[in-house]
Every structure is written in structure tokens, then in C-alpha cells.
Design goal:
Blueprint: E1 7-10, E2 13-16, E3 22-31, E4 37-38, E5 40-41, E6 54-66, E7 77-82, E8 89-94, E9 101-112, E10 116-121, E11 126-137
């Protein structure tokens, strides 16, 4: 028998664990300022789109980047959502004050059904984006 957590979430943002509430990790690796790539579900290795009747709540965005070219002036990475696997509405921008960095940002953003989460490496030679969140009923 597996014991499931009663509460899942991040810091002060919590969800009561139910059969329809699923914690998830989305990942994206991008090289040479490659713009707008859909993030992948780490469990299935498939591009993640929020299923019908669900929403995805972004709780944390972790970014590792190397050789950023616009340190301090332009975002190194952007997180967006859209009904296609590119571009979209910006949720979050990550800036760097040094050339090689990693950052972990707590946030709360609800993404509706039918949307992909897209990472945009704007100025780094390499960026790794990890999103921690919860898929739950809309």
C-alpha cells in the first residue's frame, strides 16, 4: 500500500491531495538562445498540454543558464503559455546579474486547459528550465 501525501504544494501555497490533483515536473533544455519551446512532462517525456477540464498551477520556476549575453539588461529566460508549442502570454521573466547562474523563483500562475507551457531562452548559450506545479480540476 502506498501512502499519498495529504497536502502538496510549495512553501505557503498548498493543495489538498485528491485523486484528481497531481503534482508534476515540466522540463525544457534549450541551447544557443533557442526561442519558444514547449516544456516536457518529466514522467512521460511528451510535450505537456493542460488537459480538458483541468488547469495547471505553476508553483516554482527553476532556471540554470550559461554564458548569458545581456547580463542585467534583458531577460535570460521567459516562461509563457499558449495554445501552440511556441510563444504566447508571458508568465515570468528571469534576469541574471552574472554570466552563469541558477535561480529558483516561487510563483503562482494558473494555466487553463488547452495550453502548452513554453520556455524561451532569450540571451543564454544554454538554459535548463524546470517547472514544479500541480495539475488539478479547473
Amino acid at each position: 500500500m502506498t501512502d499519498n501525501p495529504v497536502v502538496i504544494g510549495n512553501d505557503s501555497i498548498k493543495f489538498i491531495f485528491t485523486a484528481t490533483c497531481k503534482p508534476m515536473t515540466l522540463i525544457g533544455v534549450q541551447g544557443t538562445a533557442t526561442a519558444n519551446k514547449a516544456l516536457f512532462d518529466s514522467a512521460t517525456n511528451a510535450r505537456y498540454v493542460v488537459p480538458v477540464g483541468k488547469k495547471f498551477v505553476v508553483l516554482k520556476c527553476q532556471v540554470q543558464a550559461a554564458q548569458a549575453t545581456a547580463v542585467g539588461t534583458d531577460p535570460v529566460c521567459e516562461l509563457k503559455y499558449n495554445t501552440t508549442t511556441t510563444g504566447g502570454t508571458k508568465i515570468l521573466e528571469v534576469y541574471a546579474n552574472i554570466n552563469n547562474f541558477q535561480s529558483s523563483i516561487d510563483c503562482y500562475c494558473e494555466v487553463a486547459a488547452g495550453n502548452y507551457l513554453n520556455g524561451d531562452n532569450t540571451t543564454a548559450n544554454y538554459a535548463n528550465i524546470t517547472i514544479l506545479g500541480v495539475e488539478c480540476d479547473a
